[in-house]
Amino acid sequence: MTRIRPEAPSRTRVLDFATRTADLLERAARTAAAEAPTTPGDNRDTDAADGARRVRAEAARAAGGAASLVVVGEKKRGKSSTINSLVGVWDLLPVDADVATGVHVVVRYGDRPRAEAFLLPAATASTTASATAANTSDAAPRPEPIPLERIAEYAAVDPATGRPHRLDVHHVEVELPVPLLAAGLELIDTPGVGGLVSGHAQLALAALENADALVFVVDGSSELTRSELDFLSRATERTAETVFVLTKTDSHDAWPTVLERNRELLARHAPRHADAAWFPVSNRACRDAADAAGTGELGDAAELLEESGFEPLDALLRHRIAARAAELRLANAVHVALAALAAPLAEQELRLRSLQQDPTLAAEVAATEEALRLLQSESAQWRRVLTTGARDLKNTLQLGLRRSLNDVRQVAEAKIATSEPAALAQEFPGELEAQVEAVWLQLDNAARRGLAILEERVRRECASVLDAGRPGTALAVVRDGDGDGEGVGEGAVIRAEREAPLAELVLSTHPDGGALGVIESVIPSISTAATFGTVVALVTSSVLLPAVASYAMLAVLTRRRRRRAELGRVRGDATRHLNRVLTDLNTEIPAQITGHVDELADRLAVALDQAIADERLRLERQLADHRRNLAASAADLAAARDRAKRRIGSLTALRDEGLALAHSLGRTTGAPDPGRS
Fold first, then answer.
1. Cα-flanking dihedrals φ and ψ of residue 114, to 5°?
2. CA 643, CA 218: separation in Å to the nearest integer?
3. Sheet containing 213-219: which strands, arranged edge to edge?
């Protein structure tokens, strides 16, 4: 039996709810300021105004956000051509150097075509890894507008040398006014994914932690490789959905057989992806369809577009991935709005109880005030939770760093041991750069998760103490004071501190030329060559043949000796380079981890201290108001009671509408329903 998917609330309806919530909170802030403009500790106006700002910021994210698709593929699989076909800009990414993408390229919607390269600030001044220790406000990459036709210059590596054209580029962002991107999608072309091994795989896996889907590009010439299957098995827990694109169907007639074989391999080696959607496509047919449409040959264009296979891929990306991500953003907007409504609603309900001269209210307020006094104590449990949690997080991050660097060493040493001299000198620096970049991104992801968990643990500890008093305290949401709705752990934690690329690989030299060089290279091989010539003479009884054989053997042995010496030098250079990089990282990163976690823990402690102090002042004001209300006559309080009831009615109606929206969005997205405990 087919299960009918419930229909999600419309985007317009959710954004309208968020707007009306923000409007109501802003009116509440103005009213609170007018009613008690000089009362010490009365922060109702700022609380409501901050709530309104958070709601508007989250609504803006829901309206303008996009689902992130990380596009991954091995060398020469057609990854860049596929991205170009999806956006309909055929020369956007360089297809003649598909693997040579050196940095992330993010392609998103914009009103006009434009591109920016984000440059590392200190790259031109320092090329050593120790530059990562710099801790300045200018650490974030600096955007620089670039022409679209120069993206390859900033984003790709030189095919001849294997080194990036520009060492100071962190990533490139592109905006295009194309329908697919306008539907709520952004494409992330992963850097230098060649062989899906070493640092390239690590970097792609780290990028997946913040993505909505993985678009995995293979071609129709051969089945999935061992490295591709290994990558997919490791990507299992990193992304919600995987989409496979099989390219070059116009060039390989046997692609249906390859597709079936790939499904079998996935079922065996990466079963999480066994039911993923596959889309056989032809980038050539897609481009030909566009050319035909441009010349008015609409019938041919339609046939070519159908042949290209891009229409069903486009539909899935728009209607499933983009739509699901949009629903999740809408659900977050509703959640933030409901959280912002909770405090003023609780405030008005308590105010109504006071205006109704509830005799039990004074005792409840006093109990909550006592709980807050306990939270302000230097021996409060939440402070111990924060201190212990920060220490554990630093230890966890540093253990993760050591494991990551051990992985870097293991992969790099395997590369050194198995590569030819020319390939090692050309490819090793770029692959090591990718591995180190992945370490930074993995640390940043782990730090964000750890800080979010620590923040939640501290808040739960505060809430457990406040349970002795009244529910609905303003400490239910404690932020870092900027009013943007972000927690203290939401900013870049470690990643922004990396300013410069790694030190360059220095290749040693050896004086092989001249007479001494020739003698040194030839002499060790002469005796072996002479012995070989003697054996040939004994076997053949010839005079000329032994001489030719001896010379040929001498030449072969001399070349082998030189090649072996060259390989030893290059491997030694690469090993020294690896050791230098790992030493620099082991020196600099642990100190940064400690500094950042301590700084953010201090920010959280300050934010909580301030919130607790503000809450105590608010409760003192509330208790004073209640005592005045107890001394007043019921008739004198009638008008104020009516106003409180109207405000409660407005807030309750809006809250109930939000709960209904959250319930509907939870059924369609799988998100938790805030209306249920």
1. -160, 160
2. 66
3. 142-146, 114-119, 169-176, 104-109, 185-189, 67-73, 213-219, 242-247, 277-280
What per-residue confidence (pLDDT) applies to 247?
93
The tokens describing 657, both together, are 């509408």
Position 448 scores a pLDDT of: 79
SS3 57: helix
d(CA 142, CA 169): 9
Query: Is residue 523 classed exposed, middle or buried when 0-12, 13-18 and 19+ CB atoms within 10 A define those classes?
Result: exposed
pLDDT tens figures, 255-267: 999 999 999 999 9
* 8-state DSSP, 133: G
Looking at residue 219, its amino acid is: D
Distance CA(604)–CA(482), nearest Å, equals: 13
Instruction: Report the 10 Å Cβ neighbour count for 542.
Output: 12
Identify which of 278, 289, 288 has the alpha carbon closest to the alpha carbon of residue 313. 278
Q: Tokens 């870097």 — which residue? A: 408
- 8 Å CB contact between 105 and 151: yes
Please choose, from the candidates 149, 160, 148, the residue with its C-alpha nearest in 3D space to the C-alpha of residue 100: 160
Burial class of 250 by CB neighbour count within 10 A (0 to 12, 13 to 18, 19+): middle
Angle between helix 323-355 and 544-631 (nearest 10):
20
Collapsing DSSP to helix, strand or coil, 450 comes out as helix
CA–CA gap between residue 89 and residue 83 (Å, rounded): 9
Rounded to two decimals, the pTM is 0.67
